[in-house]
Amino acid sequence: MVPENTSEFFLTPPVKWAGGKRWLAERIEKLWKVHSDKRYVEPFCGGMAVALYINPERALLNDINVHLINLYRQIKNGLAMTIEMRNDRDLYYEYRERFNALVGAQGQETAEAAELFYYLNRTCFNGLCRFNNSGMFNVPFGRYRKINYRQDFREYLSSFRRWDFSSVDFQEMEISSGDFIYADPPYDVEFTHYSKVDFSWQDQKRLVKWLAGLDCPVVLSNQSTDRIRDLYQSYGFELSIVEAPRYISSNGNRNKTEEIIATIRTGS
Ligand SMILES: C[S@@+](CC[C@H](N)C(=O)[O-])C[C@H]1O[C@@H](n2cnc3c(N)ncnc32)[C@H](O)[C@@H]1O
Question: Residue 108 C-alpha to ligand 1 middle, in angstroms?
């Protein structure tokens, strides 16, 4: 049975992830509720803040980051932590080296890689996830006073067992009219480096074209820039603008940023 999602009970991401959309989840849920008989699909699931909040019966969660998806798949298989976890610089660099050696030896889809990735994510600088050109994780040690590490991920099991996970470029996903898509790509900013591959302006255009050509309801969010609004509108998306709970600095001032929520075929 799917637990009723009330504001008192919802799961939060097991990882720290840049661009988390927990703050948009109630809005996305309203759009989703009309289509809740459909499979819920996120091509850019990241930390899954929205999926975990909505807790759909069926879901396909995809992200190009293979380490993140390996962690989710291992959690689905009942992952429990066996490595020692401490907020310690030497241990951090030892595990980072071990993780990179495993990845280099084709061991990236193992439970050990998932455990190490979880530890690195919690312990590294700002929860960043960056790789050098050879695909090696290169984020330095973080500066946290205290870190709460999970020993197991049991609370996610009932949801993850109903959900599928994949790690492909969004355009390779198989989508049908029985799906509902929430797409949260990397922001339209000059520097987006979540993975080995950047998400370029060409990718932003490729994405909107792909989404517009499907035959299911789509909700798309992004930073509200002039060119993003023009692009989304030119493909027939309806736009609404919301204030984002983050700031950007310009000329010494802190300015609030705006987020676009673009919809097509949602019936709203
Ligand atoms: C803004 S984050 C998503 C955050 C997520 N909504 C959350 O709440 O945590 C964008 C994600 O897109 C992924 N990504 C980047 N390029 C991709 C591609 N071509 N196909 C699929 N995923 C991609 C990144 O790895 C990153 O996790």
Answer: 19
Q: What is the crossing angle of helices 111-123 and 89-104, to 10°?
A: 140
Give pTM, 2 decimals: 0.93
- Residue 104 Cα, ligand 1 centroid: separation in angstroms? 23
Tokens representing residue 180 in the block:
């509902």
Of the chain, the percentage scoring pLDDT greater than 90 comes to 85
Of all protein residues, the one whose alpha carbon is nearest to atom 11 of ligand 1 is 44
- Edge-to-edge strand list for the sheet holding 163-166: 163-166, 59-62, 39-42, 179-183, 218-223, 253-264, 238-250
Residue 101 has pLDDT above 70, yes or no: yes
**C-alpha 11 to ligand 1 mean position (Å):** 19
Which ligand 1 atom minimizes the distance to the CA of 47? 9
Ligand 1 center from residue 110 Cα (angstroms): 22
Query: Given the CA of residue 187, which atom of ligand 1 is nearest to it?
Result: 1
125 CB-side CA count, 13 A: 7
Q: Encode pLDDT of 7-39 as tens digits.
A: 457 899 999 999 999 999 999 999 999 999 999
**Ligand 1 atom closest to residue 197's alpha carbon, by position in its atom list:** 16
Closest by CA to 201, choosing from 210, 193, 190, is 190
Per-residue pLDDT of 172-208, as tens digits, reads 999 999 999 999 999 997 544 444 448 999 999 999 9
pLDDT at 257: 87
Q: In the chain, what are the domains?
A: 22-65+163-264 (3.40.50.150), 81-151 (1.10.1020.10)
